[in-house]
């Protein structure tokens, strides 16, 4: 909290606490004067209540003295000297204002002689005001400690958020290079045996990259946008595998309006193709299922596989680890991710909170048109 942002004047909770402490003090002091000084309760209240309210208002200035002498950095001698001196000065000012108030009360028949009695107790008022001031100082040091703790928690939360966002960006950055490397290898292999298919694959790859680049720095996109990306991706893989690759989709309409991390599903389909369909002589199918139920979005990616097929050289599991890490980084324990391999099938399922796009959500802008690029 900035020094000019007085906590009692800007925070209702601190104002209530400050007023509550002074209300208790006022009651105790009035009762003490009434019982020990032989003054009627009504007179003691009229005499002391305005004086205590005035001191509570003047005591607000202690906030600035506390800021000038922080407990962690200012020495004990400096802290004590500063607050005792400030307490004496404030109490002297309070005593002078009280003298004026006593002259006003003197006009009433019930308070005849009040000015003389007040004058005889002025020194006691100045000295007695110091403990009240130190009590206020203690209150404000507690407030400073509370605010420092809150600021530390806020900074820790912001640091954690920045670290999580950096992790998400790093994980996302791994996706396109990995896919691009695989696609360029396939294009290279097709160039010598089927130049027409190699050219077709180049154009499809350009469409896919154009669509991903159009997303800019968006962290989340609609599932419908992700499906469009998957359509481009599967078109590329269709060039490689032809009729060996079959894609089946079962997407609930409500699910299409949900927001998911960008490029979340593409690594799963790439994994299904590379480590499932590619290992089967006759090819196989990939199924994608998505639906919303009980405010959660469930997504399944399933593919056929041959458990006895020789292991492929390329590193497996990179895409799965990437997706799991991105879900954990964004949703924490609110997301579930499971991998269930069997002899003839491989199933990946995930469940995450169903988030819907706000009314002003705009789909990712596309890059230059395909026609313009080809010219």
Question: Would you mind describing this structure in some detail?
Answer:
- The protein has 375 residues and is α+β, with helices and mostly antiparallel strands.
- It is 62% helix and 13% strand.
- The protein is built from 14 helices and 7 strands.
- The strands form 2 sheets. Strands 2-4-5-7-6 form a 5-stranded mixed sheet. Strands 1-3 form a two-stranded antiparallel ribbon.
- The protein is rod-shaped and about 115 Å long.
- The protein starts with 6 loop residues before the first helix and ends with a helix.
Please provide a brief summary of the model.
With 375 residues, this protein is an alpha+beta fold. Helix content is 62%, strand content 13%.
Keywords:
alpha+beta, two-stranded antiparallel ribbon, 62% helix, rod-shaped
Low-confidence stretches: 367-375
Structural class: alpha+beta
Mean pLDDT: 80
How does the overall form come out from the CA principal axes?
A: rod-shaped
Counted beta strands: 7
Order of helices and strands: HHHHHHHHHEHEHEHEEHEEH
Question: What amount of the residues lies in strands?
Answer: 5-15%
Rg, nearest Å: 37 Å
- Largest sheet report: 5 strands, mixed
Strand arrangement, major sheet? 2-4-5-7-6
- Count helical runs: 14
The N- and C-terminal alpha carbons lie at a distance of 60 Å
Helical fraction:
55-70%
Topology:
Elements: H1 7-10, H2 12-37, H3 41-58, H4 62-68, H5 76-105, H6 114-120, H7 122-173, H8 175-193, H9 195-213, E1 220-222, H10 223-241, E2 245-251, H11 253-256, E3 259-261, H12 266-275, E4 284-293, E5 296-304, H13 318-331, E6 336-341, E7 345-353, H14 370-374
Parallel strand pairs: 2-4
Antiparallel strand pairs: 1-3, 4-5, 5-7, 6-7
Helix pairs in contact: 2-3, 3-5, 4-7, 5-6, 5-7, 7-13, 8-9, 9-10, 10-12, 12-13
